[in-house]
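To: structure desk
From: M.T.
Subject: fold request, one chain
Message: Could you run this one when you get a chance? Sequence is below, nothing fancy, just the single chain.
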Amino acid sequence: YQAKMDFALKLGYAGDQIQAVLNKLGADALINDILAELVRLGNKSESEGQSSASSTTSTLVPRGPCPKEMASPELSLEDEVVDNSDNLRPIVIDGSNVAMSHGNKEGFSCRGIQLAVDWFLEKGHKDITVFVPAWRKEQSRPDAPITDQEILRKLEKEKILVFTPSRRVQGRRVVCYDDRFIVKLAYDSDGIIVSNDNYRDLQNEKPEWKKFIEERLLMYSFVNDKFMPPDDPLGRHGPSLENFLRKRPVIPEHKKQPCPYGKKCTYGHKCKYYHPERANQPQRSVADELRISAKL
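Reply: Done. Structure tokens follow.
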């Protein structure tokens, strides 16, 4: 009995199974009969285990993420930020610059200001401020024509437009410098300046203003009645417009196809493909690198 028990244990069968077979067949049973019975019992238990497993899985509820949650992190983050205006920077618009640009430098077109404001409102921005000198509320003159002047009153009621102070002293108009209002508010609120002016005089006033204007100035163009800021406000290798307008960038900067030549590419900054290894360094061609090393 013990010899048959040890033999079956060496073959990997469980002790209770062997004991049940020996009790059933008797201690005098042949080894072959015992093994046949053990095999039959093993097959039977496996089939029962599979049936119980299938019945269990049929009632199980999957605990993984739902299909909506399984979306790519980039898309889910982008959707979240588009709806979340807290991540969008405040916008400060140089009203005089925008209105004169829309009027082709010939007149003060208030409609241009409205077009710029509407563009940012459609992007989800809520903190928008437009600065315009107060004397623009006066009646239009031939030497300084103003069109669609009622738009200024409308935007003022909506608490979007702010008139910078001006007054008359002995028949002479005294005007406060509206550019200083624009730069100061944008700097204090960590926002974006919308203008085609470089504010060179203000850059020389304070070093922190100089750096801020260089990094937060959003230029634009008007194509008829379409307000068009650039997709690359800080140049070809800077942030995208979407990330430029956000406090925390979300959309990956480079969606272009990676360069098939990789690090062996000799096109330098002229290469139209994306080079991850050149993200934080000046992109020069191999020929330029050789010239520089030769000079050194």
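Reply (cont.): Confidence is low (pLDDT under 50) at residues 53-83. Let me know if you need anything else for the meeting.
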